[in-house]
Design goal:
- By secondary structure, this protein is an alpha+beta fold.
- 22% of the residues lie in helices and 35% in strands.
- The chain contains 2 helices and 9 strands; from the N terminus they run E-E-E-E-E-H-E-E-E-E-H.
- The relative contact order is 0.10.
Length: 159
């Protein structure tokens, strides 16, 4: 192991590898148990879910390699879905037809930043050739009407 990679842990209530730690915790909402999946280096769990009671109906079922791998797979899927949702929120596009019948794809790309988000509006023809790109406000509302208005303006920067 390197200095930056934690040693693996394989205990009844905590299990970890190079990237993930599963920790069985008391469920604050009831008498049951939960499991929290933490990606190393992150401050918040990627996944928190219910955990099975043990045979004594008081203590949690111990973690094992199979449960840990299932939890890692689920936590990775949660992260992937979150990234897809964020990408969809920050990147929008619409395809419109011009008066002369050309198809133009207009895309809005927002780049989040703690100092202030930036955004750009771009247009491509049906062959993927970029026709224009301008900076816009991250609050720009992209829809078919605003895309057609931008094209009709000769790709002038929207106000």
């Amino acid at each position: 192991m390197t200095d930056h990679t934690p040693d693996p842990i394989h205990e009844d209530r905590i299990w970890s590898d190079e990237r993930w730690t599963a920790r069985v915790i008391k469920n604050e909402d009831d008498d049951g148990w939960a499991v929290a999946m933490m990606l190393h280096g992150e401050s918040e769990p990627a996944l928190v879910g219910p955990w099975t009671m043990g045979r004594d109906k008081k203590n949690p079922k111990p973690l094992d390699v199979n449960a840990f791998h299932t939890l890692v797979k689920t936590a990775n899927e949660v992260i992937r879905r979150h990234e897809q949702q964020l990408h969809a929120q920050l990147n929008r596009n619409v395809t419109v037809r011009t008066d002369d019948g050309r198809r133009i794809r207009v895309a809005l790309a927002i780049v989040p930043d703690d100092e202030g988000a930036t955004a750009s509006l771009s247009a491509e023809d049906e062959f993927g050739e970029e026709l224009a790109r301008v900076a816009v406000s991250p609050a720009f509302a992209l829809n078919a009407r605003s895309a057609q208005a931008w094209i009709a303006s000769g790709f002038a920067r929207p106000a």
